[in-house]
Amino acid sequence: ASRSMRSMNASAAADSSAVWISYVNAEGRHSRRTVYPTLVSGGFVIGLDDESGERRTFAISRIQEAAPAS
After folding, report:
1. 53, CA 20 to 30 Å: which among 2, 33, 34, 69?
2. Mean pLDDT of 13-31
3. 3-class DSSP state for residue 61?
4. How confident is the model at residue 70 (pLDDT cuts 50, 70, 90)?
């Protein structure tokens, strides 16, 4: 995982801002999500997934792209 992606997610967690991610799950399925990170630790981003409305954990190694959501 890139340091810049980890840093951006950590910054978003610090100020409760949304991040758009392109993610590949364990089965290889691609998805695009808007996430409100609350914690970045141990190679994972934990936050509220806007699509499901649930708290989710995303492996940073599976995040292909990330950008601030506007």
Report:
1. 2
2. 89
3. helix
4. confident
